[in-house]
Design goal:
The chain is α+β, with helices and mostly antiparallel strands. It has a single domain, classed as Aminopeptidase (3-Layer(aba) Sandwich), CATH 3.40.630.30. Strands 1, 2, 3, 4, 5, 6, 7 and 8 form an eight-stranded mixed β-sheet that branches. A hairpin with a 2-residue loop joins strand 7 and strand 8.
């Protein structure tokens, strides 16, 4: 188990401490970050995917077939020079995300999800930083993130973490949603 830091008092999870915000080796207190395991994580990942999307700016577009992608995490991410991580608070999955290989030099971050009850606690930031670290370890030179055009918090996080907007030519549509592409050199 890749537990970066755990332990806190009972009750609602504490906010992400400012002094830890830039420390890539420390998770918010009470959270554990682990590599995705289909046997342990598949059902909870499907629940989190549905809950997070339904509570997002594009939730009304939700289709049940979007959860089929969770069944293919091992093949689409882990078995093809990619990574997929999950974040737990106790026994509850509160965050997830991964990156997939685009080409020999580039990976793209996908499926960053945070449980609505745990938003603004640093989980997405933790995932993005850990995925960037892993992409470097895998030898990628560039990291991309496709962000839904109405997801202002994720766009802000990408900018904060040093990603630049690729421009209009890198906008795309998928499942009727409009995305913009961010990119960062590693």
């Amino acid at each position: 188990m890749n537990t970066l830091r755990a332990g806190h008092k009972m009750g609602r999870a504490p906010k992400f401490p400012r002094e830890l915000a830039e420390d890539r080796k420390v998770a918010p207190i009470g959270f554990q970050i682990k590599r995705y395991s289909p046997a342990r994580d598949c059902a909870m990942a499907k629940d989190l995917n549905r809950i997070a999307v339904l509570n997002s700016s594009w939730g009304k577009a939700w289709r049940e077939d979007w959860n089929i992608a969770i069944d293919y995490i091992r093949r689409a991410y882990l078995a093809n020079r990619g990574e997929f991580l999950v974040v737990y608070h106790g026994e509850k999955m509160v965050g997830m995300g991964g990156f997939q290989k685009v080409d020999g030099q580039t990976a793209i971050i996908k499926k960053i999800r945070t449980h609505p009850e745990h938003r603004r606690e640093g989980i997405a930031s933790l995932l993005m930083k850990k995925l960037e670290e892993k992409a470097r370890e895998f030898g990628y030179a560039k990291l991309r993130a496709g962000v839904e055009e109405n997801n202002a918090p994720m766009q802000e996080l990408c900018r904060k973490l040093g990603f630049g907007l690729k421009g209009k030519e890198c906008e795309y549509e998928q499942d009727g949603l409009h995305f913009v592409l961010f990119e960062k050199s590693l």
